[in-house]
Fold this protein.
Amino acid sequence: MKIGIDARFVGPQGTGLGKYTEKLIENLKEIDKKNNYLIFLRRQNLNFLDFSKNKNFEKVLADVPWYTIEEQIKLPKIFTAQNLDVLHVPHFNAPIFYKGKKIVTIHDLIHHNFKESASTTKNPVIYRIKRFAYKKIISDAIYKSTKIIAPSNFVKEEIIKTFKVNPEKIVVTYEAAEDTYFSPEKSASVLKKYKIKTPFILYVGNAYPHKNLKNLLKAFAILVNSSRSTVHSSSKTVNREPTTDNLQIVIVCARDVFTKRLQKKIDDMHLTEWVTLTGYIEAEDLVKVFKSAEAYVFPSLSEGFGIPGLNAMAAGIPVASSNIKTLKEIYGPAALYFNPNDVTEIKEKIHQIITSQKTKDDLIKKGSEQVKKYSWRKMAEGTLAVYESI
């Protein structure tokens, strides 16, 4: 069978989508020596994957930007020219004019659930045009694909509810933590490189509104005002709660259009002294940052899976998470949950996870077991089964 995979997201610029596609291809290389794979890449990531030992894997140049008209016009010709038995597009952005059999991975329906102008920085007219295009493309991907892959049962149920598709068309393949997080090391030099002060809690991801960093900052501001209330006496200050006195938040996200809004929020709330925005951190350094954190905090309002929390569990640090259905499905008993819309509750859970050694130890122990339930190999095996089913 001749299988095509759109791998244009592979590499650090593709963030989570790139990691998913990379891990899928890496594991397919190990488990499938029978089928032939054509891996479509952009010029900038053409050398990111190595197929020198895999004769059944071949690279095909598809130097077309994501989310463009060009993607819809040029890609169908590139895919069709390869005479594929099946094409796997690992996102909703499958070209609507491609007529061959295709499988799509729908990671979430966040764009469906967050329609407000707060979720964009674009001109309202351009935003409406792009939203119309998004709805057309994702509907076409869902209705015209032969199979749909979802990363969680929650996303599967959302797709069924929103698009009224047959449940048998959707297959769930769980993702996993990254292997490098299972044996990380602390590194003072890495923390110094990114100007990170200890102790700190960690968030890794983008700064889109649904990530709910606004409420995380509000909760932290309450913690600052309660635990760092000081009595000024000449040049001396007296701290009332020394256990959280020096706690920082480190937010790791690539520079995107919402980061400026986030920085302004930090400045307006007078939290500059306690919040560090690092921007992008190289993968090998990020593992060490995880290991040095007191806890990972995930306040998101909507997720399709939740890899960062599993990475934290693999790294041996506790996780505090919003109690949305997806994250409860994936993290099970291994996280300390809070209502993401209740700022006081977020503050209380952060305080608990920092000050209670018993809570920390319990979460770390449960996390080390929970993360073992998932593997990229299982994900690849499940995906291969979908390929072969059609």
